[in-house]
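Could you show me just one protein sequence together with its fold in token form as a worked example?
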Amino acid sequence: MKKTFYNLLQPIYPLLAQQFVDDYGLQSGRCIDIGAGPGFIGIELAKITDMEIYFVDTVDEQLKLAQANFLASGSENKAHFINSDVHQLAFEDNFGDFIVSRGSIWFWREPREALKEIYRVLKPGGTALIGGGLGRYVPETMRKRLMEANQKRLAERGEKRPTLAEFQLMVEEAHLPHYLVISEEPGVGRWVEIKK
């Protein structure tokens, strides 16, 4: 099997899912996983909640992989695999109880507009968590190893991630009514928590 960064990150997804459940009291309702890729976050949430999971990506091959991974997980939760762009989501207003996207915001064409679209789809009383990071539950040895691997990968690709200040400005320019920018630690993970 070809080794990808997704494979390297796979151990963090159960930890992130547990953190989300602990932080937001997730049990049931609709979860939208935007930029789902192989579906790891949605699958891990399905394992520990009764949530109906909507896997969203713009790449059909990724959706097929997410579907295969979901079926292999043995989860009995309802799941949907939807090809939709974050800038124009295929959901009605006030649809999702919990919306999550880890790692895809860095590739969005217009992140400010996409954040507004996520707010539109978020149900009143719901939460969206958008950004990237490893979460609080990752052991320090794993965190160090993954951060070094990611820095090497970004350098090889000539990519960089926005600073916390740049991320904060991007979120501010989306003019969301209720949000909180979260930094896991200086220079590492950045998330925006959106409430409605």
